[in-house]
Amino acid sequence: MTDQKTVITLLCERAADVDGICDKAGNCTTVDGLKVVKLPCSGMVQPLMIEGAFKAGASGVIVTGCQIGDCYYREGNRMIRERLLGERTPGLKKTVERRRVLALWLSRLQRGKFEAEAKEFVAYIKGLEPLAAAPAAAPKPAPAAKPAAPAVAPSEDKKEDAKAAIESKPTAETTPADADKAAEAKVDAATTSGDKPAEEKKAEESKAEEKKD
Amino acid sequence: MKTNIWTQIFLVTEDLLNKISTSKYNPLYYHGALPQFIMYILFLSGLLLFAYYVPTIDNAYFSKNLVNAYTSVAYITNDIPFGAVIRAVHRYAGDAMVVAILIHMVRVWFTDRYRQYRWVQWESGIVLLLMVLFIGQTGYYLIWDERSLLLTRMTVSALEVVPVIGEPLRNWFLNGRTISNLTLSNFLFIHIGLSFSLLFALWIHYVRMSRPVITPPPALNYILMTIIFAVVYFFPITATKIADLNSQPTSMDIDVFFLLPYAVLGALGTTGFWISMILITAALCLIPYPFTNKKPVESAEVVDSKCTGCSFCFKDCPFQAIEMVPAPAGSRFKLLATVKPYRCSGCGVCVGACAFDAIDLPNLLDSDVNEKIKQLANSQSA
């Protein structure tokens, strides 16, 4: 089994300044297992890129853009936020586990916050059981953890300004893109159950269970 | 990505404001929408003032003792219920508008959001600023106190020295050869007519932006109104002396928001005034054209064979740089996306919007990004 602890960050180059904590290749030096890919704007993040990261073996993805309201290119961070929330097409495929995706909206000065949140997220991902290698070969879901926490951001604090917990909303309208892809992607029981409307209670419960383990 | 000291100023301020108000209510994230909201305050309060204002210098409504502009303003202030409040709101909202516009301008300038694909917004913004300043000045003429008289005479002296068209300009401004009853109706026309022309200029200001942010959150509007009412309460407008055509007023209070050009006129004389005004305006207009070589934008490119004409990129482009055109003959699809390179900012939102890999930034192909993600995901972390 490949290393399951890699977390890929898709980062807007104008958001949190990570130059000091990353080498040229994109390996974060202070947070173990965190890799950074820089883009001109978080709006450039394709849901396909996130799916690709999981397909390539990453166990978590962080999307980081500027503070909502302050995109240099006007609306990039709003766009990707809406895509992740399933309010704008193209969105994330249902096969992607929502709790493994974290969105952070941080201004250039908030490197400390980025590090702290990323560290917490990496630790959270490490606590999860390993992802199945490819969605097509997904085995039967493990009963407890999977019907899971819709993207509960790792930390307890409810501040919405810095991060948006990505709710797992059932995307009612299927895009042409999704329709194409849906044919090849088997939507198994596990993933559909993961996409039920977010119920805070359930989320809390399953999280508590995870902690017990 | 390096940030300069100017951007840093705003980053620090905005970070501070985010801590106080959260990003949803950060006034600096609505720097463009706030002047627009103030404009509505001005329209509404101006409408109420318009109902009682008499634009003449004498001989009107003797029976009601309303003989000219000055006494009608006094009537609004003293006799109409809350007339003084409305008048003061109109006055201070005007000041607030100039402040808001200047903050807007400085922010887009300091954070580098004014040039290249944004030049139309910058230039139309300069026009809007000049319009607002001139509208504000005509507001000062309308009161018809001693200051108005002095301002009118100063303006006439400045207009008269303009070569060739000087005299027609003066005649247009005064609505005749000298100050007469018709003069103030012309001032009122300029004041109101230009105000509504702001809407046209705003249209040009917004024309290259998809979904411009023009409405601040109500909470910010309430705070702004509270501030304006507080200023109205603590600094009520004081009575001034009626204009007397036979007198020669020589000094006045300078309102820093609107009347600075008259301070320049007083200090430098008419020629110096025009030269400095033209230089300042030209300098403002030239700001987006730096004479150092800045990196040009590499605009997004559509891969025609992959584009399905779904128009997601067209909808999501923040700068209206993508146009859907009929697909060439033989295509399976009806439409094809095309990029207008002069409008493109190279931000890549269209790349994020495309589920078919049909649009690319030439300097950062999404296949390269995917490759990098794959490589990083596979590399073993130490």
Summarize the structure.
Chain A has helices at 47-55, 76-85, 111-127, 176-184, 189-194, 200-212, and strands at residues 7-12, 34-39, 60-65, 101-105, 163-164. Chain A is α/β, with parallel strands linked by helices and 213 residues long.
Features of the shown structure:
heterodimer; A: 213 residues; alpha/beta; 5 strands; disordered C terminus; B: 382 residues; Cytochrome Bc1 Complex, Chain C; Alpha-Beta Plaits; two-stranded antiparallel ribbon; 13 helices
Topology:
The complex is a heterodimer of chains A (213) and B (382).
Chain A: E1 7-12, E2 34-39, H1 47-55, E3 60-65, H2 76-85, E4 101-105, H3 111-127, E5 163-164, H4 176-184, H5 189-194, H6 200-212
Parallel strand pairs in A: 1-2, 1-3, 3-4
Antiparallel strand pairs in A: 4-5
Chain B: H1 5-21, H2 33-50, H3 69-78, H4 83-110, H5 119-142, H6 146-160, H7 166-174, H8 181-206, H9 218-234, H10 260-286, E1 301-302, H11 312-316, E2 322-326, E3 335-339, H12 349-353, E4 359-360, H13 366-378
Antiparallel strand pairs in B: 1-4, 2-3
Separation, N- and C-terminal Cα atoms of chain A:
22 Å
The backbone outline of chain B, from C-alpha atoms, is elongated
Which band does the percent of strand residues of chain A land in? 5-15%
Strand content of chain B: under 5%
Rounded average pLDDT of chain B: 90
- Euclidean distance between termini CA atoms of chain B: 27 Å
Multimeric status of the protein: heterodimer
CATH class value of the largest domain in chain B: Mainly Alpha
Strand order of the largest sheet of chain B: 1-4
The SSE string of chain A, one letter per element, is: EEHEHEHEHHH
Number of domains of chain A: 1
Q: What Rg of chain A is obtained from the alpha carbons, in whole angstroms?
A: 16 Å
CATH topology of the largest domain in chain B: Cytochrome Bc1 Complex, Chain C
